[in-house]
Amino acid sequence: MMSTQSQKSKTEPEADSAPLLVFHKLLNHFSYGATNYSPARFERLLRSLIAYGWSSIGIDDQTPGRGRGMVISFDDGYLHLAELLPNLIAQFDLHPLIFVPSGLIGRSNDWDYSYRWCPTPHLNKSALRRLVELNVTIGSHGVSHCDLTSCNHVLLKQELEDSRHQLQDITGQPIDYISYPFGRCNVRVTESAAAADYRRGFTMNFPQPSDEPLSRGRFPVYGFDTPWSIRQKLEHGPAYQIEKLKATVVGRLSGGTVLLNFLKRRSS
Questions:
Q1: How far is 203 from 219, CA to CA, in rounded Å?
Q2: In this predicted structure, what is the pLDDT of residue 116?
C-alpha cells in the first residue's frame, strides 16, 4: 500500500513547473564521456539564453525577475563547481541546484568508468558549506551513486535516508530534493523516496505532462550541445524530437557505468 506521504506527493500541485537543465562537469580540460561542458562554453550559453529571454530561477521560485524562468541543476557535485560558481552566481544571478552523493564527499569519482583516466574530485564538506552560504540549493544524489532500481529494500532505504540525513548535518538545511543516479527510478524507488520525505525527485528523461513530483523530467546538457540545441529543448522547437532521441541514446550508454557499480557492490 502506498504511504500517506506518497499519496500526498501524487496529488499536490506542481509548484516547480519551470524547465530544468542538468549539467555534470564544467572542466577546462578533456574529460572522457559526454557530460563535460567547459566553463567558457557554459558562460556563452548563459549569455545566449538570457538574450533569448531566459533567466535562472531557484527550484521553488516561480516568479523570474525577467523573461522565462529555468532551473539550472548539476548532478554528481564535483569540487570544481565551488571554484566556478561564485563568480557565475554574481555575474548572471544564478540559483543553482546541486545534487551530491553523500558517501563520496571529499573523494574522487571512482564509481565512474572514466576514473582511471580522468579522476575528478567531489565536493568536500567545506566547499559544500561555502556554496550553501551563496544560497545554492543542495539535493541528494544517493550515498554511493548506485542505480537505485537495483537495490534491495534495505539498501534502497539506506541510500535515500542516509544521504538526506548526512547532507542535512553538513549543510544545516533541509534536503527536500533527490536526483536519481543515472536518472533511473521506478515506482518502488519513488514510493521509497516519498517515505524518506523527499518533496521532489528528478530523472534524466525529457519532461512529460504526466510527470509526477517524485519523477520529474529534466533536459540533460551534453558536451555536443549548443545554445541552439538547448533552446530546442527548452522551447520545444522544431528539432525537439531529434534532441530527445540524442539524449535517449546517450542515456543508454551509461549502462556500462551502471554495470561497473553493480559488480563493485557485489564484490564488496
A1: 9
A2: 65
